[in-house]
């Protein structure tokens, strides 16, 4: 049942990619006055078509890759990573909880007072903090010390209404959930080894270390408050957990944003994954998925060739918003090239030359992106 839901989700993600292509077509159609450009855009729109039988083929391929990834680590395009999360929130939780979302060059700290099935979310507050550029190039200790300091400053603003709802059991230890967007190898529900720094970070150390331990050590160096990292998840699992809090039927989490990813609750686990409940949230890493049934166009091929990882993360390059502006750039650049070749008057040629110069400058920025 869950795999059927995932197949439906990947089909929806594919349709989203097509919708993005149509948006580019409509945007260009609105401002274009050249029949030649309309022909180009019509061909592009047609190449992106995903009729029902194509979506079925894609869904079947996803299901096969899911099973292969579960049966043998590394045996599939999909990584199918265990998250060690067996139980999801269901609305019965009570007490005060903190969260830290470290994604990109900003991070967000949040506190939330939960009141159980009747009151649900009583009150929540959050703060977004920009990370100084110097820390993006410094050491992991400097980075996590800064994060811990700002977290403590946020806790100091905790109002009496939050303190009345504490769940410290006399020990006054606040529990923190950590969401992180860097690639990690998770080894338990609250440990994860950093694989590499991304998101513009150029920190020399930290790779190969436990991100939870690094943050916990930084918080322990701060005096006055006791905080424990209770769980480590990524944004995809967090999305599903948030949905499950309000609706027990939620079994799949999908991110369709700058990048794309998915997770789901697997009930038929391999024998080497031991759980008490017999089920676990599996993180798919489906940005790496590829199928010959996906509507790959010459634009997708060009974007892939120009990226820093040609041949990798094909599905993400067709669905992630990070690539949408580059799709627009390639379509416009191709229109410019055709108008320069077939222009009947100098005015159109001159304007096309200026436009192509701008697009080439934009291309330089694209090639320097370290998240591609």
From TrEMBL:
It holds the Pfam family Hexokinase_1. Residues 42-245 form the Hexokinase N-terminal domain. GO terms for molecular function: ATP binding; D-glucose binding; hexokinase activity. Residues 252-331 form the Hexokinase C-terminal domain. Transmembrane segments: none annotated. InterPro entries: ATPase_NBD, Hexokinase, Hexokinase_C, Hexokinase_N. Residues 1-20 form the signal peptide. The keyword Signal applies. It is an enzyme of class 2 (transferase). Pathway: Carbohydrate metabolism; hexose metabolism; Carbohydrate degradation; glycolysis; D-glyceraldehyde 3-phosphate and glycerone phosphate from D-glucose: step 1/4. Its EC number is 2.7.1.-. PROSITE patterns: HEXOKINASE_2. Keywords: ATP-binding, Glycolysis, Kinase, Nucleotide-binding, Signal, Transferase. GO terms for biological process: glycolytic process; hexose metabolic process; intracellular glucose homeostasis. The keyword ATP-binding applies. It catalyses: D-fructose + ATP = D-fructose 6-phosphate + ADP + H(+); a D-hexose + ATP = a D-hexose 6-phosphate + ADP + H(+). Belongs to the hexokinase family. This is Phosphotransferase. It comes from Physcomitrium patens (Spreading-leaved earth moss). The lineage of its organism: Eukaryota, Viridiplantae, Streptophyta, Embryophyta, Bryophyta.
């Amino acid at each position: 049942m869950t795999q059927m839901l995932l197949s439906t989700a990947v089909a929806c993600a594919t349709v989203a990619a097509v919708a993005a292509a149509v948006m580019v077509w409509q945007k260009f159609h609105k401002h274009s006055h050249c029949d030649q450009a309309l022909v180009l855009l019509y061909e592009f729109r047609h190449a992106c078509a995903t009729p029902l039988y194509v979506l079925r083929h894609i869904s079947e391929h996803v299901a096969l890759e899911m099973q292969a990834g579960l049966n043998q680590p590394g045996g599939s395009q999909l990584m199918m990573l265990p998250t060690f999360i067996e139980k999801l929130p269901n609305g019965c939780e009570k007490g005060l909880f903190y969260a830290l979302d470290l994604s990109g060059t900003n991070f967000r700290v949040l506190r939330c007072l939960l009141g159980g099935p009747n009151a649900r979310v009583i009150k929540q507050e959050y703060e977004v903090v920009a990370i100084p550029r110097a820390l993006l190039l410094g050491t992991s200790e400097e980075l996590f010390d800064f994060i811990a300091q700002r977290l403590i400053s946020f806790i100091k603003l905790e109002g009496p209404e939050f303190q009345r709802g504490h769940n410290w059991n006399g020990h006054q230890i606040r529990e923190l959930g950590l969401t992180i967007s860097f690639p990690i190898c998770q080894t338990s529900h609250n440990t994860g080894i950093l694989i590499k720094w991304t998101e513009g970070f150029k920190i020399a150390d930290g790779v190969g270390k436990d991100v939870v331990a690094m943050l916990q050590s930084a918080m322990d160096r701060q005096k006055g408050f006791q905080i424990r990292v209770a769980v480590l998840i990524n944004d995809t699992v967090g999305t599903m957990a948030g949905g499950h809090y309000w609706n027990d039927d939620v079994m799949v989490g999908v991110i369709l944003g700058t990048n794309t990813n998915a997770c789901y609750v697997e009930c038929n686990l391999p024998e080497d994954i031991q759980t008490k409940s017999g089920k676990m949230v599996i993180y798919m890493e489906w940005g790496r998925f590829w199928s010959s049934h996906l509507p790959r166009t010459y634009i997708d091929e060009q974007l892939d060739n120009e990226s820093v990882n040609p041949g990798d993360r094909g599905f993400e390059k067709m669905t992630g918003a990070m690539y949408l502006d580059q799709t627009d750039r390639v379509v416009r650049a191709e229109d410019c090239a055709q108008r320069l070749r077939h222009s009947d008057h100098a005015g159109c040629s001159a304007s096309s030359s200026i436009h192509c110069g701008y697009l080439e400058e934009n291309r330089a920025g694209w090639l320097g992106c370290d998240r591609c």
